[in-house]
Design goal:
The structure holds two protein chains of two kinds. By secondary structure, chain A is α/β, with parallel strands linked by helices. Helix content of chain A is about 35%, strand content about 25%. Chain B has one domain: ABC transporter involved in vitamin B12 uptake, BtuC, CATH 1.10.3470. Chain B has eleven helices and four strands, in the order H-H-H-H-E-E-E-E-H-H-H-H-H-H-H. In chain B, strand 2 and strand 3 form a beta hairpin. Classes of the chains: A alpha/beta, B mainly alpha. The interface between A and B is medium-sized, with 27 and 18 residues.
């Protein structure tokens, strides 16, 4: 279970998150919805330790992970799929997977399991990341995170710029991870994509936590999304 | 001596310079490529390598080869350790901010230089080469009887100069292998590509930075140990390698190791040839002019990639 207890964070002196609290249970998909600039990506970066917390704490399965050096956070079992994929330019597919495996000392069997989810990557192991198509790059960003055998997975706009068949492939992987008991925090602009997978939805406004509700309620009342997100 | 043999002689001198320059510049390029730090103190790490080589050679005594081999091992290790310590105590504290690291490394330059002056003194001191046999070079000429080989008077080099060229080539190949074939090289390349994502995947970026800064300085020190039997160890000897390394790194493309090596060969050879035929000053002027042209017409350098 991933818990955010009243976390505050920002860039330099500019505070973006203000005492945001969230809980994502194991085997649950919680979607974070909010307008541009509301603090969704900042939340992810604060969890990963890439931004220092100004207050509050982050716990994974009851163990505090905030306050550790940033490179220790993924070792605790948090996988991050950032917005825009942010693959390592110049590194091959195999090298990306190796970096993911190394983070938690995972063996080759984990690599085989991940490649079974993305067989297309298995055919391109020696290809450099920047030469892959957009969909393949998203697969690689996801595969790199799954190599950590994460207990919690943070996905920031995973369907951005992808064609429908690729969105469906990513959706299926997310659903499989949920079935495997991974706590999934999802940031997504495409409300239809969110509603098809999310268990609960949490709204964020100006860095503060808003209402948290079952995704089912949004499926029945689209007016809620319009009120919070303006779409 | 005729022009042809003269050019060959100048080329060998240039190749020695290119070899030493390539080692020094690759260290600077590695630091900039991975850490985005412009290390103004790089020339002082070069100087420190030469001075430590002199101390080691004096301390060890015996046959010159023993002192030289000891210096070849000890000087890069000591300088690398000093650089890694400087990284952890200075650069880390200013969060590797590009502007502040320039000021900090300028400070480091003066600290190293003045400490060396206080302890080592102002004199230039030689380190004896481990071997230095004269090798007469053959020249070929087309005469009435066809091709003929002969040894023109004065066309010669030394075994040590050839050793410097070979040693630099071996070390540069080793650096290339380290970057492309080893796990630490993989971590360095990932850090170079995106340091935040490197952290998000468990790479201890600060430790990688300390190691890279140490390796960069160690390469400069190694270059200095190789050249100190040909030139001499002096506390102000860091200025020229620093200037030439920047010229090479800019021409080759900031952060590009293959570009740095190609540019070092280009600048080293042209510097050697122009210095022999005209003057060392003209060689520096032309190299600086070339940098100006590269910055105007191809700012990313010969092998660099344009920022997106």
């Amino acid at each position: 279970m991933l818990e955010l207890q009243a976390i505050s964070a920002g860039y330099g002196r500019a505070q973006v998150l203000r005492e945001l609290s969230l809980t994502v249970a194991s085997g649950e998909i919680l979607c974070l919805l909010g307008r541009n600039g509301a603090g969704k990506t900042t939340t992810m970066q604060a969890i990963m330790g890439l931004l220092p917390l100004m207050g509050g704490q982050v716990l994974l399965d009851g163990v505090p992970i905030s306050g550790r050096p940033a490179h220790e956070v993924p070792k605790a079992g948090i996988g991050y799929i950032p917005q825009g994929r942010r693959l390592f330019a110049g590194l091959t597919v195999a090298e990306h997977l190796e970096i993911g495996l190394r983070a938690r000392d995972a063996g080759p069997e984990v690599r085989d399991e991940v490649l079974a989810l993305f067989p297309r990557l298995g055919e391109r192991l020696d290809q450099r990341a920047e030469t892959l198509s957009g969909g393949e790059q998203q697969m690689l960003a996801t595969a790199r995170a799954l190599c950590l055998r994460p207990k919690a997975l943070l996905l920031d706009e995973p369907t951005e710029g992808l064609q429908p068949s690729m969105i469906e492939a990513i959706r299926q992987v997310i659903v499989k991870m949920r079935a495997a008991g991974v706590a999934i925090l999802l940031v997504e602009q495409r409300v239809d994509a969110v509603l098809s997978v999310a268990d609960r939805v949490a709204f964020i406004e100006n860095g503060r936590g808003g209402e948290v509700m079952p995704a089912e309620r949004l499926r029945q009342d689209h007016g809620i999304v319009e009120r919070y997100v303006g779409v | 001596m005729e022009l042809g043999p003269y050019i060959l002689l100048a080329s060998i001198e240039g190749a020695v310079m290119a070899a030493v320059l390539a080692l020094t510049a690759v260290g600077l390029s590695l630091v900039f490529g991975v850490m985005r730090v412009v290390n103004i103190a790089h020339g002082e790490f070069f100087m420190l390598g030469a001075v430590i080589a002199w101390y080691v050679a004096q301390t060890v005594g015996g046959h010159p080869a023993i002192g030289f081999v000891a210096a070849l091992v000890i000087a890069p290790l000591v300088v690398g350790a000093i650089a890694a310590a400087a990284d952890m105590t200075i650069l880390k504290r200013i969060a590797y901010d590009p502007e502040r690291t320039i000021v900090a490394t300028i400070g480091l330059l003066y600290i190293i230089q003045q400490l060396t002056l206080m302890t080592y003194g102002p004199d230039a001191r030689p380190v004896e080469a481990p071997f230095n046999q004269r090798i007469a070079l053959p020249w070929v000429e087309w005469g009435e009887d066809g091709l003929s080989f002969f040894h023109p008077w004065g066309l010669a080099t030394t075994s040590y100069k050839l050793f410097v060229i070979v040693a630099a080539a071996v070390v540069l190949t080793g650096v290339r292998m380290m970057m492309t074939r080893t796990r630490i090289g993989l971590l360095m390349r990932a850090t170079q590509a995106d340091s935040d994502m490197a952290l998000a995947f468990g790479i201890p970026v600060e430790r990688v930075y300390a190691m890279v800064f140490g390796i960069g300085a160690g390469l400069a020190a190694l270059a200095a140990v190789l050249i100190v039997p040909i030139s001499q160890a002096h506390y102000l000897m860091g200025a020229d390698p620093l200037l030439l390394s920047f010229i090479v790194v800019i021409i080759g493309g900031l952060g590009s190791l293959p570009g740095t090596v190609v540019a070092a060969v280009l600048i080293g050879l042209s510097d050697g040839i122009i210095s022999v035929f005209f003057s060392p000053t003209l060689a520096k002027i032309l190299a600086t002019l070339l940098v100006g042209l590269v910055l105007v017409f191809r700012p990313q350098g010969l092998f660099g990639t344009r920022a997106p």
